[in-house]
From TrEMBL:
It catalyses: [protein]-peptidylproline (omega=180) = [protein]-peptidylproline (omega=0). It is found in: Cytoplasm. GO terms for cellular component: cytoplasm. Its EC number is 5.2.1.8. One of its GO terms (molecular function) is peptidyl-prolyl cis-trans isomerase activity. Involved in protein export. Acts as a chaperone by maintaining the newly synthesized protein in an open conformation. Functions as a peptidyl-prolyl cis-trans isomerase. Keywords: Cell cycle, Cell division, Chaperone, Cytoplasm, Isomerase, Rotamase. It comes from Leptotrichia rugosa. The lineage of its organism: Bacteria, Fusobacteriati, Fusobacteriota, Fusobacteriia, Fusobacteriales. Pfam families: FKBP_C, Trigger_C, Trigger_N. InterPro entries: PPIase_dom_sf (IPR046357), PPIase_FKBP_dom (IPR001179), Trig_fac (IPR005215), Trigger_fac_C (IPR008880), Trigger_fac_C_sf (IPR037041), Trigger_fac_ribosome-bd_bac (IPR008881), Trigger_fac_ribosome-bd_sf (IPR036611), Trigger_fact/SurA_dom_sf (IPR027304). This is Trigger factor. Belongs to the FKBP-type PPIase family. Tig subfamily. Residues 159-227 form the PPIase FKBP-type domain.
Length: 428
């Protein structure tokens, strides 16, 4: 076995089995196939050469697994590696009397922490002015506006919400992802390609018409790039915002006693929100300074995992709006590869931050008690609208309790680590 360090996050393992060693390994594997069923032979009486020919792929796979398992364990133990993901098979060759394997192991990088105590970081001072309060109240007034369906003889205009059915055609043929019914579209939002929304402006309820657009040259679907398309569109309804008036009735509708009460409580809410924002930004500045001061490489395996996590989270958010990723790509011209590329920088930063905070928690011996974890469970149960026992029972039923508990411990240790950094930082 030969182990080579390729970089701070990757080790390469090369192994060869040949001669008698290979022969014994192969015989060991063949034992598991001795009772294999082969037409024309009784179980247990199939000649070895017949088994080797019929089950060559499976036998080679078993030999590979044995070699990798042995060499992986040795490499990890002898080099004190900390693997973070599955190995990557780089080479596998098997001959009559020899097998050669090369694989890489992604590992946690070794690194030295930069300065994380005695830093000086600027903290924002803020003031809640009457202007900010009035701006917030104006926002609530506008948000209280209700969408009201306009009369059938009125035409759609920008900012209206039109409910439409549509189906797209290229060269007279309908294409995948180009059809929907009962879709709410805000005109002027530029959610759809080209001048799609502009061509709906001026139409009325129950109008059926054609919309002609052109797909972008950089569109992700090869069969649609730069192609002109025709959409058959029907307007089911047109809704327009009806602005609310600021008075005691509106204040009560929004949960206040009066407009004066609305102003007082809005000031309180802004103050709490701004205090939380300033504190959060202060913490982020500290963390960023600590991470920037530490020379650590983000393992590609962890970065790729973080990218997929971010994309899955975005997909879930879209799903809550009734849109899937495929539809999103059709509407925006985005691609999954471009999305991954755009997410990489943020993912690398996130991974580096996680590595640095984890190392600080180890150096500072930061731990959590069972009582603290139990309290965290109480908080999570409240967040889910459940009692703690019911929540934990559901988690145990799904077989995810250990991971659930580990994640809770990780969050608490992370919070304590950040609190330590804040305590050790001088406010500038």
């Amino acid at each position: 076995m030969a182990v080579k360090k390729l970089d701070e996050t990757t080790y390469e393992v090369s192994a060869v089995r040949e001669g008698e060693e290979f022969k014994h390994l192969k015989e060991h594997v063949l034992v598991h196939f001795k009772d294999a069923k082969v037409d024309g032979f009784r179980p247990g009486h199939v000649p070895a050469n017949v088994i080797e020919k019929k089950f060559k792929k499976e036998i080679d796979g078993e030999i590979l697994n044995h070699i990798i398992s042995d060499e992986y364990q040795k490499a990890v133990a002898e080099n004190e590696l900390k693997p973070i993901a599955d190995i990557k098979l780089e080479k596998y060759e098997i001959q009559a009397d020899k097998a050669e394997v090369v694989f890489t192991i992604p590992v946690l990088p070794a690194f030295e922490l930069g300065q994380y105590k005695g830093l000086e970081v600027e903290k924002e001072n803020f003031e809640v002015t009457d202007e900010k309060v009035n701006e917030e109240i104006e926002g609530m007034r506008k948000n209280a506006s209700k969408l009201k369906e306009v009369p059938e003889n009125e035409e759609a205009k920008n900012d209206d919400v039109v409910n439409i059915n549509f189906e797209g055609f290229v060269d007279g043929v309908a294409f995948d992802g180009g059809k929907a019914e009962g879709y709410d579209l805000t005109l002027g939002s530029h959610s759809f390609i080209d001048t799609f929304e502009d061509q709906i402006v001026g139409h009325k309820k129950n109008d059926e018409f054609d919309v002609n657009v052109k797909f972008p040259e950089a569109y992700h679907a090869e069969n649609l790039k730069g192609k002109p398309a025709l959409f058959k569109v029907k307007v089911n309804s047109i809704k327009r915002k009806e602005e609310a008036e600021l008075n005691d009735d509106l204040a009560k509708e929004l949960g206040f006693d009066s407009v004066d009460d609305m102003r007082a409580k809005t000031r309180e809410n802004i103050t709490k929100r701004e205090e939380a924002r300033v504190e959060n930004e202060f913490k982020n500045k500290i963390i960023e300074k600590v991470v920037d001061g530490t020379n650590v490489e983000a393992p590609r395996a962890l970065v790729d995992r973080e990218i997929e996590f971010q994309i899955n989270r975005f997909a879930q958010q879209l799903q809550m709006q009734g849109i899937n990723l495929s539809q999103y790509f059709q509407m925006t011209g985005q691609t999954i590869d471009k999305m991954r590329e755009d997410s990489r920088e943020m993912a690398e930063k996130s991974v580096k931050t996680e590595l640095v905070l984890s190392e600080i928690s180890k150096v500072e011996n930061i731990t959590v008690t069972d009582e603290e974890v139990d309290n965290e469970f109480e908080v999570m149960a409240t967040m889910y609208g459940m009692d703690k026992e019911s929540m934990l029972n559901e988690v145990k039923k799904s077989g995810n309790y250990q991971r659930f508990a580990d994640e809770a411990k990780y969050r608490l240790v992370n919070k304590k680590t950040i609190d330590l950094l804040v305590k050790e930082t001088k406010v500038r």
